[in-house]
Amino acid sequence: xxxxxNIVGWIKKxxxxxxxxxxxxxxxxxxxxxxLKRLDYYIIAKFLGTYIFAIVLIISIAVVFDxxxxxxxxMEREAPWNAIIFDYYKNFIPYFANLFSPLFVFxxxxxxxxxxxxxxxxxxxxxxxxSFKRMLRPYMVSAAIISIVTFLLGxxxxxxxxxxxxxxxxxxxxxxxxxxxxxxxxxxxTNVVAYIERYEDQRKxxxxxxxxxxxxxxxxxxxxxxxxxxDTAHANHWSARDYMIRELGGDxxxxxxxxxxxxxxxxxxxxxxxxxxxxxxxxxxxxSAYIERQRARGxxxxxxFEIEYHxxxxxxxxxxxxxxxxxxxxxxxxxxxxxFNLGIGLGLSFSYIxxxxxxxTFSVNGGMPxxxxxxxxxxxxxxxxxxxxxxxxx
Length: 394
Hints:
Blueprint: H1 2-22, H2 38-76, H3 81-99, H4 101-118, H5 121-127, H6 132-172, E1 180-189, E2 192-200, E3 205-215, E4 218-230, E5 237-249, E6 252-264, H7 269-272, H8 284-296, H9 303-330, H10 339-365, H11 370-391
Antiparallel strand pairs: 1-2, 2-3, 3-4, 4-5, 5-6
């Protein structure tokens, strides 16, 4: 009961904030009274309280194990404590809490619903004539709150923190970024194709560069350079060294040579060098723009970015599916207590995360479309949820 009263206290604080900022006298004014009653708020408080408690408990354990694993690398590379705490773990905690949000939802629903069933609270609800469908209303409201929050965090807030976290790992734990790439060919503008045999990110220099311009299918200009250097002070600004330009016009050909020429090319080092898990560092608008830009350049290395984009949406909807499964499983009172239901719930939640990972891998390494790979687990578990809902006590 202490947990419930703590959540009620937080709700009271939220009501005071709403009153001061929005002129709302009560949190309940945001929802029609005919839809949510006092019992609904009691279940919502139970749900969200247990959900937050599960996050705090499991993430605390994860932090301890993660620090124990990486402590030697941090000490060896002399990582400062303020960077470990504020650059790494400050962003590590919300990232993993949001990543495993479906697991926390499932655990929360199984735990507090089984507890209510064990205390005969659900039997008391049904004895008043309440249907199982009506009882699910506060569950779905809670799932909607969690779904909206996790989506907004995952799509707009956490990627910015991931930039700091991954850069910290790259500096003090394990380098993720490749400094050299070979044989890069991409479309940098309409009918303009660039090729770099080797690119070194430390020097911002590409070797054996060529730039071809076409008019339809006909080549009209061919530029080659021994090296090409990126000017970090100006966007898309490159300096070609030891260059030759061939202008092709019908039967005539003009050749121009020189030691150096500055040129604008819609190409940056970020387009050439990709860091592992770079998609986690982009917000949804950035992901969408990156995917469109790479497709326009004729590149096909966008699957991981497409998977990340669609997964953020699919994982939000998973809250509703897993909430229905958990409530359907745990609402029946059992002699053995909540242990059996909790075990099934953990098994299903871990299998969901595993299935999500496997289907994403098939998409990256196979020909499965990313949107299909991401939504297959949701579709499968939606059928499981419907089956368990039909078998739940009414």
